[in-house]
Amino acid sequence: MPKTTHYKSLLEKELATVEAELKTIGRHNPSNPNDWEPVPAKLDTDTAEDMEIAENITAYEENTAILRPLEIRYNDLKRALDRIKKGTYGVCETCGKPIEEGRLEANPAATTCVADMQK
Fold first, then answer.
1. Per-residue pLDDT, 108
2. What are the beta bridge partners of residue 37?
3. Were 63 and a residue from 2, 25, 33, 112 both cysteine, which residue would form a disulfide, CB within 3.0 to 4.6 Å?
């Protein structure tokens, strides 16, 4: 059985970091709390020049590209914390065997053992 207190601490710390990063480029989707959406920069399009508008669009697209992997990680971390609450943390979702400690140290949100990860 994994050291859930230890892994819970790792997960919560990483979750706080990922959430802080997400907040710099996005916001929670009001209709789906598990979804993040990029936030465009504040820009008065009535007075903005074409170059400013183009730069704003580019920044929005960059935020979208950065946001997606962070959002995936955020949701993985939340699900791992949920598994701790349910008492199913550290159990491979594919074969039902315990996930190796080394794998959980490398990725506390892991859902599969090393053998199933490599398949």
1. 97
2. 27
3. 25
Q: What is the 3-state secondary structure (H, E, C) of the chain?
A: CCCHHHHHHHHHHHHHHHHHHHHHHEEEECCEEEEEEECCCCCCCCCCCHHHHHHHHHHHHHHHHHHHHHHHHHHHHHHHHHHHHHCCCCECCCCCCECCHHHHHHCCCCCCCHHHHCC
Full-model pTM = 0.79
Pair of tokens at residue 25:
């480029």
**pLDDT given at position 65:** 84
Cα distances from 15 to residues 11, 22, 60, 79, in angstroms, run 6, 10, 23, 11
In angstroms, the CA 6 to CA 113 distance is 18
Q: What pLDDT score was predicted for residue 43?
A: 45
Q: Which residues of the chain have pLDDT under 70?
A: 1-2, 40-53, 56-57
